[in-house]
């Protein structure tokens, strides 16, 4: 077959590749209540995290001689706004440093919803492909209409026909159940006054995809890190780039695998994240690039995206849970 | 598309269904509007091609299925995987949606974790062995209740597109949609694709069988089927409008009223194999030879122009009566 | 155009009359689709005499489609499948006549979001395909009426011309009930407005059809006694007054169909043969149906009174 002479660029889109590290380690995720608990809480957090980070590094060292590991930190500016970058970031960096940790990249949680005017969460929502419970032949209402995503079949609710058969309660069923079900149903967003509020697990799923180098917008990379050149950080979160590079690290933000270190109260959220990741049809071009390059480096990634994310759930630093209860 | 991870899976059968209808919009859409209509995913490209005809193709989206396959011999085969669905708009006027799947000769005995199916888009694996011939016949015959229903999936996308806020939801004339069911049996790599048959059934139903070498992507076969379905729709629709035997009768609709939309909206759409993969373009030759798709189209076009031309000439008795 | 056929109660001649209207329009060259939304007791297949074909579609009809069990409702090409010998040979130039049957095993069911979406999708699709779509709705304040009102109130369907026929018999009880169905509490207009319809527009899209109307002047009654005759005239007059008072008077009536034994007893399509050759049906009935069929799309009869 001879090469075609005539080409139209709009008819042959391409997917750009992004630089990839071996591992992206998330050192923490800061919410308002953590901030309000004061610097001691952060100090405790980083001291605990430090132990596990060493273990995680050792695990990468086992697979490669020249590990490329980047670290990141996420600040919630989506569900609640508190403090300012100028006040908060130096404090976070100071406490990390005290524990011997370096934060390479800092991201704002709202960037998982919209970054650089690109609606990342919306795009990911369009890519949800629900795991079909047995008996699905193409008639189920798509999740985009319900806003909920499950790991199986919900308790059936069918409007009964007049004089139709009366059925008793039926249990929900996990599709991949072994003998017994662990059924989970995850709310992806809620609507209030016509505005959509993405749920924490859904934004966290977008965050994982970004860290795994699997997000594109029309073939272009998204959430590209920006170096902060100025002296002081801004006084408004909106003036801070969605993803800021804080060091001159050579390790890229995105990586073949991710490891997230967090207190064990986030277990349910992260379980929901895995449920979501398991049902996303990610950009085939990006998926292919990551697979090819990781295999080329002798550390091939698992086929299923959710398997590439690992976690360390540690015990909440002392006093934190007590503070919450109070 | 090569599967990015996991063992490569060789399909032995590709099946699909194409639905073709008039876009419910008084004006044909331009390239930009077409791209907007077909942007099924905010972050993915709509392929837009302006030459030789304006043609826009949506990204493929997936529908997960876990159900029985239609099988002509009644065999019960459960299969799991994803069906690929896509929409296409030609000259901003004819809307199509295609749902299609590739099927391997055999699959694991139990269902895999879902994430493993997602990385093989458009592949539906049987649990156990695939009775290829029976399933091919079953797909052409149509799905029974609860069986994999490609038509339903294609129709779902079509309904979604017809609801798009961009459209004024008015049609320049009434017309019937058509359905083309197709199956392609995979042949060894390097062979030449061939068309086994193309059947016109009643109620707008068409059936088609192909032989497809292993190196030709399933999407290319879907593209060929869309092209054939589009041209078959043009023939069917135009023929039906011309066959309205009350055309021009005293109490019937006027010739201009009925044929004007054909001239404005349809006559220029005939462009066989314009966007067909070069590896499959030759399959058109068979249909051009017999029954002669283009020959019939030229004939229809001539008839329409003649009838319209006659309108401009006073009829003999009218001319006489004016003296 | 969409025509919704409603009636205050069963036995108002809704199905048999609207089926005859569909038949007349198809004979006149329109492509017509008839939807049996009488979920409780789908009988349109009997009127079109396609009972065998319908049997073959049971479980795949409109009911199964609306509740999402099948992707598309089954349909029957009446000319091809009918057991009626005359209908089997439609004259050249006639349009298509398609029946989408209900499911016998179905039943009335409440409207859910999914049902509604299926309903809108179907009506839109048929609207693009057919010149006339007739939807036969279950009698009274039924879920079918509910769904039709809800569907046509959706933004997707705003552009579409939908008209409502309320069928009723020519008795005190039926006249009052028809008026109540249209204008009363939880009636078509009240229900429509609650679902987002414009009251004036909806009011303007409703017309009444009087079915099985005995004509006191008809030769049928020429043998009755003068007392009976006088009584009939008086009752007819009273009914007219009642109808007028209830808002279903002359200006709101699209037409009347005379009392016709063939419609009453056989509940089938009246063909030209029945009128001309075998003469079992009355010429007047044929003409009344033909007039009514024409008026469905004649804007003159749908202007605000």
TrEMBL record, chain A:
<protein>
    <submittedName>
        <fullName>Uncharacterized protein</fullName>
    </submittedName>
</protein>
<dbReference type="InterPro" id="IPR049747">
    <property type="entry name" value="SCO2522-like"/>
</dbReference>
Automatic annotation (TrEMBL), chain C:
<keyword id="KW-0238">DNA-binding</keyword>
<keyword id="KW-0067">ATP-binding</keyword>
<dbReference type="GO" id="GO:0003677">
    <property type="term" value="F:DNA binding"/>
</dbReference>
<feature type="domain" description="CobQ/CobB/MinD/ParA nucleotide binding">
    <location>
        <begin position="3"/>
        <end position="51"/>
    </location>
</feature>
<protein>
    <submittedName>
        <fullName>DNA-binding protein</fullName>
    </submittedName>
</protein>
<dbReference type="InterPro" id="IPR050625">
    <property type="entry name" value="ParA/MinD_ATPase"/>
</dbReference>
<dbReference type="GO" id="GO:0005829">
    <property type="term" value="C:cytosol"/>
</dbReference>
<keyword id="KW-0547">Nucleotide-binding</keyword>
<dbReference type="InterPro" id="IPR027417">
    <property type="entry name" value="P-loop_NTPase"/>
</dbReference>
<dbReference type="GO" id="GO:0005524">
    <property type="term" value="F:ATP binding"/>
</dbReference>
<dbReference type="Pfam" id="PF01656">
    <property type="entry name" value="CbiA"/>
</dbReference>
<dbReference type="GO" id="GO:0016887">
    <property type="term" value="F:ATP hydrolysis activity"/>
</dbReference>
<dbReference type="GO" id="GO:0051782">
    <property type="term" value="P:negative regulation of cell division"/>
</dbReference>
<dbReference type="InterPro" id="IPR002586">
    <property type="entry name" value="CobQ/CobB/MinD/ParA_Nub-bd_dom"/>
</dbReference>
<dbReference type="GO" id="GO:0009898">
    <property type="term" value="C:cytoplasmic side of plasma membrane"/>
</dbReference>
């Amino acid at each position: 077959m001879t090469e075609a002479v005539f080409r139209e660029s709009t008819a042959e889109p391409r997917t750009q590749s992004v630089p990839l590290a071996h591992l992206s380690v998330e050192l923490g995720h800061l919410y308002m209540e953590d901030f309000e608990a004061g610097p001691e809480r952060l100090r405790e957090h980083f001291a605990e995290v430090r132990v596990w980070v060493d273990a995680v590094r050792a695990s990468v060292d086992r697979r490669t001689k020249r590990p490329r590991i980047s670290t990141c930190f996420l600040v919630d500016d989506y569900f609640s706004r508190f403090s300012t970058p100028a006040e908060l970031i130096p404090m976070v960096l100071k406490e990390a440093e005290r524990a011997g940790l370096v934060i390479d990249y800092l991201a704002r949680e709202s960037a998982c919803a919209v970054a650089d005017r690109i609606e990342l969460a919306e795009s990911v929502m369009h890519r949800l492909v629900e795991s079909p419970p047995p008996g699905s032949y193409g008639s189920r209402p798509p999740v985009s209409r319900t806003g909920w995503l499950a790991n199986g079949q919900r308790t059936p609710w069918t409007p009964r026909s007049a004089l139709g058969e009366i059925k008793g309660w039926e249990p929900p069923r996990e599709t991949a159940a072994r003998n017994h079900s662990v059924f989970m149903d995850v709310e992806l967003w809620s609507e209030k006054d016509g505005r959509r509020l993405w749920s924490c697990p859904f934004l966290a799923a977008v965050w994982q995809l970004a860290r795994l180098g699997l997000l594109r917008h029309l073939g272009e990379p998204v959430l590209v890190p920006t170096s902060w050149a100025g002296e002081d950080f801004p006084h408004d979160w909106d003036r801070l780039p969605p993803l800021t590079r804080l060091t001159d690290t050579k390790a890229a933000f995105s990586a073949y695998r991710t490891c997230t270190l967090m207190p064990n109260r986030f277990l349910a959220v992260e379980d929901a994240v895995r449920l979501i990741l398991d049902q996303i049809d990610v950009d085939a071009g990006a998926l292919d690039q990551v697979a090819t390059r990781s295999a080329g480096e002798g550390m091939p990634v698992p086929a299923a995206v959710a398997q590439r994310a690992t976690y360390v759930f540690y015990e909440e630093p002392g006093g934190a849970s007590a503070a919450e209860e109070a | 598309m090569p599967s990015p991870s996991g063992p490569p899976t060789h399909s032995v059968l590709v099946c699909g269904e194409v639905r073709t209808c008039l876009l419910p919009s008084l004006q044909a859409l331009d390239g930009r509007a077409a791209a907007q209509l077909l942007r099924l995913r905010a972050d993915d490209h709509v392929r837009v091609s302006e030459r030789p005809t304006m043609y826009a193709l949506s990204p493929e989206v997936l529908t997960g299925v876990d159900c029985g396959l239609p099988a002509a011999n009644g065999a019960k085969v459960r299969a799991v995987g994803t069906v690929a669905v896509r929409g296409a708009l030609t000259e901003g006027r004819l809307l199509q949606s295609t749902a299609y799947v590739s099927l391997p000769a055999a699959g694991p005995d139990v269902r895999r974790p879902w994430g493993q199916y997602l990385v093989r888009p458009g592949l539906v694996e049987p649990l156990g062995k695939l009775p290829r011939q029976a399933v091919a016949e079953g797909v052409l015959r149509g799905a029974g209740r609860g069986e994999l229903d490609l038509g339903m999936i294609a129709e779902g996308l079509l309904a979604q597109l017809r609801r798009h806020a961009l459209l004024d939801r008015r049609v320049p004339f009434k017309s019937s949609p058509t359905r083309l069911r197709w199956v392609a049996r995979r042949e060894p790599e390097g062979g030449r694709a061939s068309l086994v048959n193309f059947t016109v059934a009643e109620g707008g139903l068409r059936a088609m069988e192909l032989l497809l070498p292993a190196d030709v992507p399933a999407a290319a076969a879907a593209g060929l089927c869309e092209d054939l379905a589009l041209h078959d729709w043009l023939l069917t629709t135009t023929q039906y409008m011309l066959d309205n035997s009350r055309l021009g009768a005293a109490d019937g609709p006027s010739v201009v009223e009925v044929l004007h939309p054909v001239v404005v909206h349809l006559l220029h759409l005939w462009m066989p194999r314009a966007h067909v993969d070069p590896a499959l373009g030759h399959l058109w030759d068979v249909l051009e030879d017999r029954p002669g798709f283009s020959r019939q189209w030229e004939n229809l076009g001539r008839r329409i122009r003649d009838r319209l031309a006659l309108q401009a000439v006073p009829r003999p008795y009218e001319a006489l009566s004016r003296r | 155009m969409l025509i919704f056929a409603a009636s205050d109660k069963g036995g108002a001649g809704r199905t048999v009359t609207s089926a005859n209207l569909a038949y007349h329009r198809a004979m006149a060259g329109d492509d017509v689709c008839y939807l049996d939304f009488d979920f409780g007791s789908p009988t349109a297949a009997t009127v079109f005499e396609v009972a065998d074909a319908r049997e073959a579609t049971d479980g795949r009809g409109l009911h199964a489609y609306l509740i999402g069990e099948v992707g598309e409702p089954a349909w029957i090409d009446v000319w091809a499948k009918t057991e009626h010998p005359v209908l089997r040979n439609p004259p050249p130039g006639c349009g298509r006549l398609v029946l989408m049957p209900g499911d016998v095993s179905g039943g009335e069911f409440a409207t859910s979001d999914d049902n509604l979406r299926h309903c809108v999708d179907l009506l839109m699709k048929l609207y693009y395909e057919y010149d006339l779509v007739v939807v036969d709705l279950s009698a009274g304040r039924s879920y079918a009426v509910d769904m039709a009102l809800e569907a046509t109130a959706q933004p997707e369907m705003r552009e579409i011309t939908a008209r409502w026929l309320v069928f009723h018999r020519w008795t005190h009880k039926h006249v009052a009930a028809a008026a109540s169905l249209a204008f009363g509490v939880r009636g078509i207009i009240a229900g429509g407005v609650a679902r987002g319809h414009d009251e004036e527009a909806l009011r303007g899209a409703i017309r009444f059809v009087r079915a099985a109307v005995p004509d006191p002047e008809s030769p049928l009654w020429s043998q009755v006694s003068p007392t009976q005759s006088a009584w009939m005239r008086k009752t007819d007059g009273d009914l007219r007054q009642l109808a007028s008072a209830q808002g279903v008077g002359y200006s709101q009536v699209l037409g009347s169909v005379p009392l016709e034994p063939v419609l009453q007893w056989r509940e089938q399509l009246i063909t030209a043969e029945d009128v001309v050759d075998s003469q079992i049906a009355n010429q007047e009935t044929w003409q009344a149906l033909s007039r009514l069929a024409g008026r469905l799309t004649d804007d003159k009869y749908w202007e605000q009174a």
